[in-house]
Amino acid sequence: MAAKEPERISAVTVIVGSSPLEPDEVSKLVGVNAAGYAAAERGWEPLHELLSQVHVRLLGDEGMAGVLSDAPPEDRAIMETPTWQKISRGNMAEALKQGAEGWADESMALHNGWDFDPEEIHATVTWWAGDDDKNVPLSAARRAAARIAKVDLRIFHHEGHFASLTHETEIVTELLSRSV
């Protein structure tokens, strides 16, 4: 939106933003995401089939904690909390209640690269990333952030994909400080 509607956007916050991946980054992803990348390489149908299976797992007894059982310890600790599990299940149920088609569409769009040029973003951008994120590698975030003129890449050290959940106040306060 910031690249396509620059007159409307003055400040952007990216929280563990998904970025196009290089082949060497795929091998460092959690298993389900690496499998999703490989399926997307084969096309929408194989990806949709995989995500339909993951959809069942997410909404079943296994939940997100089971699907991401190979996530870094920092993320597993967050996923083990009952409050997080309840919120996650509710969010997943709502997001996937019509099936995995939209998820497959979005994943293919991300897999095929962005439909905008990050260099066209003129707003100030703060990009938050965990240095142990196995869903969105820090190297991909660094590469994407380097293409944005006014970016502040902030790294949560020794934290993973869910780091932002423990830094909500800091993130919102920072964004509001830049908002017009």
Short description:
With 180 residues, this protein is mainly α.
Q: What keyword list fits this structure?
A:
180 residues; mainly alpha; Rossmann fold; 2 domains; 9 helices; globular
Describe the structure.
The structure is a single chain. By secondary structure, the protein is mainly alpha-helical. It has 2 domains: 85 residues, Rossmann fold; 91 residues, no CATH class. The chain has a 3-stranded parallel sheet with strand order 1-2-3, sandwiched between helices. Helix 2 runs antiparallel to helix 3 and helix 3 crosses helix 7. The chain is globular, with a radius of gyration of 17 Å. The model has no long low-confidence stretch (mean pLDDT 94).
Distance between the termini: 17 Å
Give me the side-by-side strand order of the main sheet.
Answer: 1-2-3
Radius of gyration: 17 Å
Low-confidence stretches: none
Mean pLDDT: 94
Helix/strand/pairing category: mainly alpha
Number of strands: 3
Strand content: 5-15%
**Could you spell the SSE succession in H and E letters?**
EHHHHHHHEHEH
Please report the number of helical segments. 9
Largest sheet: 3 strands, parallel
Helix share, percent: 40-55%
Supply the number of structural domains.
2
- Categorize the overall geometry: globular
Topology:
Layout: E1 11-15, H1 23-26, H2 31-42, H3 44-59, H4 63-67, H5 73-79, H6 82-95, H7 101-111, E2 124-130, H8 138-145, E3 151-156, H9 168-178
Parallel strand pairs: 1-2, 2-3
Helix pairs in contact: 2-3, 3-7
